[in-house]
């Protein structure tokens, strides 16, 4: 890890668009919970402004934002210990994003694989926000001078861009102001794959609901989706090498490892030699045991909408207390008159 003058601070975000799924949980949320502790400040955000880079029905967006907040808390984020809020309540994110829009280059944005995937062949018709998305993401992180960002593997390129923006800003203005953030991409499930196709990432945009486990699925649905997950006819190997050409088998073993807090090697030492007919029920039992309490608690919290809104507003106040002075200093560095006041 690089030494910096910055105090350790964790930041990460999840989009409130559609359902929270097992990939979000194992690749991000569960790890956010693990990073919570007295030695580091942890800041977690529902990035509603990122979500609207593609069309969102207003009512559904509001519902998804509250449901995501319920998911954070049900998974173990303590709003007293972590700062938990939605992005649009902290205007400093978009204010810093504008500065970064003027630091980052068009070419950097156009190179992003997520832009190419999401805009597809119809780039002229994509929103300008979708292109500028990574610049807002850099602002999310850097407006807190965050040093560590836990994410799944698919966000790696965006975090490299965040570092590029910080480096260029520091160079352009001759300062050492923004930290060079460390991506934290760790564990057995940094890339959870579709249950129907081991070469595709588990995602909320997959048209098949059988491809993913949603955090709101009940026990029967979870068990059914695992029972029907695509596999191959062979028994499980005892060593990780034996999974290299078997993407579906590797995915299920990795999910088992992440859910049971073990390494893939440890899991294979236990299940090597078993057929899927035996392994799938083990995985289904484990998944139900770990996920059902979360979905039950999410449903309960969703009955307390006013309480969720209160938590988000309180989190936003705490977030602004950190972000506002950093934005003010940024304005001052850039030469905005009046930046010293307030
Ligand atoms: P989003 O909302 O697509 O996903 C939220 C988090 O879940 C992880 N993830 C996965 N991990 C493992 N396997 C999968 N199949 C899988 N699918 C999703 C993502 O890597 C992510 O960590 N741009 C971000 C949100 C964002 C953000 C930020 C993240 C906005 N600003 C600042 C970190 C810091 C996104 O769209 O994530």
From TrEMBL:
- One Gene Ontology term, aspect cellular component: cytosol
Instruction: Name the SUPFAM superfamilies for this protein.
Output: Nucleotidylyl transferase
PROSITE patterns, alphabetically?
A: AA_TRNA_LIGASE_I
Q: Which residues does L-tryptophan bind?
A: 140
Looking up InterPro entries in the UniProt record yields: aa-tRNA-synth_I_CS, aa-tRNA-synth_Ic, Rossmann-like_a/b/a_fold, Trp-tRNA-ligase, Trp-tRNA-ligase_bac-type, Trp-tRNA_synthetase
Please classify the protein's predominant subcellular localization into one broad category.
cytoplasm
A GO BP annotation = tryptophanyl-tRNA aminoacylation
What are the UniProt keywords, alphabetically? Aminoacyl-tRNA synthetase, ATP-binding, Cytoplasm, Ligase, Nucleotide-binding, Protein biosynthesis
Span(s) of short sequence motif 'KMSKS' region = 201-205
Q: What is this protein called?
A: Tryptophan--tRNA ligase
């Amino acid at each position: 890890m690089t030494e910096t003058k910055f105090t350790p601070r964790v930041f990460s975000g999840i989009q409130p668009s559609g359902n929270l799924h097992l990939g979000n949980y194992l690749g991000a949320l569960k790890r956010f919970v693990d990073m919570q502790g007295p030695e580091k400040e942890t800041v977690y955000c529902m990035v509603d402004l990122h979500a609207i880079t593609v069309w969102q029905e207003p009512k559904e967006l509001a519902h998804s934002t509250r449901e995501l907040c319920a998911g954070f808390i049900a998974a173990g984020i303590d709003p007293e210990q972590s700062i938990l809020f939605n992005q649009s309540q902290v205007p400093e994110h978009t204010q810093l994003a504008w500065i970064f829009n003027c630091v980052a280059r068009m070419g950097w944005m156009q190179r992003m694989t997520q832009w190419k995937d999401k805009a597809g062949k119809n780039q002229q018709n994509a929103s300008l926000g979708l292109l500028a998305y990574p610049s807002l993401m850099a602002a999310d992180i850097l407006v807190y001078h965050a040093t560590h960002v836990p994410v799944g593997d698919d966000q790696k390129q965006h975090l490299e861009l965040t570092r590029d923006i910080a480096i260029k800003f520091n160079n352009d203005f001759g300062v050492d102001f923004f930290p060079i953030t460390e991506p934290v991409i760790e564990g057995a499930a940094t890339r959870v794959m579709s249950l129907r196709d081991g070469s595709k990432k588990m995602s909320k945009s997959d048209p098949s609901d059988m491809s993913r486990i949603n955090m709101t699925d009940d026990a029967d649905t979870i068990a059914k989706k695992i029972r029907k997950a695509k596999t191959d006819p062979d028994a499980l190997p005892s060593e990780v090498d034996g999974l290299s050409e078997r993407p579906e088998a590797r995915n299920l073993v990795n999910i088992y490892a992440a859910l049971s807090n073990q390494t893939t090697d440890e899991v294979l030492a236990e299940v090597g030699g078993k057929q899927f007919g035996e392994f799938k029920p083990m995985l289904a039992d484990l998944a139900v045991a770990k996920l059902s309490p979360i979905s039950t608690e999410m449903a309960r919290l969703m009955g307390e909408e006013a309480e969720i809104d209160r938590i988000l507003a309180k989190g936003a106040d705490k977030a602004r207390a950190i972000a506002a002075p950093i934005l003010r200093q940024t304005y001052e560095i850039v030469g905005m008159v009046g930046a010293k006041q307030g």
